[in-house]
Amino acid sequence: GLKENKFGVDIDDAIALYEKAHNSEYINVQGLDCHIGSQLTDVLPFIDALDKVLELISKLNDRGIEIAHLDLGGGVGIRYDDERVIDISTYVGEMLRRVGDLEIILEPGRAIVGNAGIFVTTVEFLKQNSDKSFAIIDGAMNDLLRPAFYGAYHNVLPVNEVAKGVDAIWDLVGPICETGDFLAKDRQLSLSEGDYLAVMSAGAYGFTMSSNYNSRPRVAEVMVSGDTHHLIRKRETIQDLFNTEILIND
Ligand SMILES: Cc1ncc(COP(=O)(O)O)c(C=O)c1O
Description:
This protein is of the alpha/beta class. The chain is 23% helix and 24% strand.
């Protein structure tokens, strides 16, 4: 835990907490878990954290507190743009070399599914003025929150690679009445109304962070395997949004 944020337990306070748990008749101490952050592109912070927790485990062992497993969380970054990413075998190799016989658990979320998913959206309207070119798309911040929430970058590719439209540097904005409702900014694309666009790297923190904000039903999910595809989640309807509401009868 960093002192300045809400997550975790400060490593300096951990021993006292473990002792309290160990002395409690209701708690059976099993392991030590840590998660140091997300979208890390360097293996060194993981090694630093591991060295710190291994030192803590040895201090706990000295106090008679057995740690059966070590959970090192997730956080392995993926390539959204041109990030250099961690070599997974180096990462795992470094971990295994240090942990010895201790059972190790990893929680890779984004690294498994992030680049396995895309978000497909349609260009509804093109709106250009002397300063800016906007493509209003049917996808919005409720569907893929990361750009609005964190200013996150997602690559955007035309689904039809040979389509020719209006060449410009476009902001791809959603139809929700929020200035922050955009999926991408300043992208050189050739666009026409009706084009499909693929917003890349949407497999993690995409659908799971989506919402019904602005009374927008959530999108369908389609799984593609080779040249077959399966609908794995139906598109929500407006009716679905109201199904759980209850009318008050006098
Ligand atoms: C405890 C814990 N484990 C795993 C993860 C997954 O992280 P990522 O998807 O970056 O690998 C998170 C994400 O915040 C987390 O808080």
